[in-house]
Amino acid sequence: MTQPNEEISALPPGAGSARLDLPELYQCVHCGLCLDQCPTYRVLRLEPESPRGRIHLVKAVAEGRIEPNQRFAEHLDLCLMCRACETACPSGVHYGRIAEAARALLGPPRWPGRALALLCFRHLLPYPTRLRWMASVLRLYQRSGAQRLASRLVPRRIREMESLLPAVPARFFSPSSEIFPALGERRTRVAMLSGCVMSTLFGAVNEATLSVLRLNGCEVVIPRRQTCCAALNLHNGETMMAKRMARKNIDAFLAAGVESVIVNAAGCGAAMKEYAHLLRDDPEYAAKAERFSSLVKDASEFLWELGLALAPRRVELRVTYQDPCHLAHAQRIRSQPRALLRAIPGLEIVEMAASDRCCGSAGIYNLTHPDMSQELLREKMQAIAATGADVVVAPNPGCMLQLDYGARRYGPKIKVLHLMDLLGQSYGAAGPA
Ligand code: SF4
Ligand code: SF4
After folding, report:
1. Does the beta carbon of 191 sit less than 6 angstroms from any atom of ligand 1?
2. What CATH number is given for 179-305 in this structure?
3. Longest dimension (CA), the chain
4. pTM over 0.70
């Protein structure tokens, strides 16, 4: 994005949105079929750390039987928001909506300090320009030798948190124009989300996505006035700011006059498909949000429906695929990315065990709950190692960061790529070689 979005006005401290009159709470029939799909229950075997237990607690708060106290908050905070319980649930319980509403009641998380959380959710994420400034400072810190020097002085806990960070790339995603014509015959006009983390840490993936779309006959609009999707705000109880960001995106993308809005980050796509629910009571935006959400498509979902106009060329690699939670469980997209991988000749695709189990990234969860996160990551890296793959494909920035860290810390020494990287590579387009 080339323009800032600075007009999202500041929220008063403590502003949240508390509403627990959810019909979803009464859909749970306590069958327990979700329990063994829940990563936190699998590790701890405790009812309050299961979806059923958490729903029970939220219902008790909604009915005034218990207070939303610190212990209640801890049970909710330990949830990864991976939504594996929704896939398992025969009653169609929207656990994610229940958890988001409960977190809105509690306000921003207590770690790493409410002030830091508010700074991040209210003053950084909604403003792409500020985020880039932060990333530039971090890049300078990493490249100037200051990080090496500091690593001898800071406590072990800080060093561990720092090691989760990737090297900030030399270039951010800064498209030279707002509209990019299709390469070859024009088949449709789409818009693309730049994303906050994607455009700062994974600019090459955005370049590859843009190239793949254009090579497949898409005229691509990258609206300058778009902002972050607000997924992290939503998951952390910052509902009012999330609504403001959603309205801004709706205005920016609907004005682009496109047939689809393409998203290459699973978590962002899941959040944007939920704008219709988020703004359902907004008299001005409810209908617009409905229309907007119906246009949102994950890049793999879109390309598979459209059909590849250009046949991918050979790429000789052994590849395994990690289902991002917000693609497999929240958007129910599993077959399309695999079908696109199979369309690349030369790729040998090996399935890992439990590919749709959370890797422990979950937004900022790997910072807020390092023990649980590391437990899940170790298990994931073992599953990846068993495939003997050269590359693990994970179309979501959080998973890519976590798996890259996992490869450095636990092995195997495997390359982590986005699906668009591989498609771009097979077309000889932008993206890591
Ligand atoms: S979202 Fe994931 S971690 Fe949370 S209750 Fe459901 S399955 Fe468990
Ligand atoms: S599977 Fe669904 S209905 Fe059964 S306990 Fe879990 S959330 Fe409730």
Report:
1. no
2. 3.40.50
3. 63
4. yes
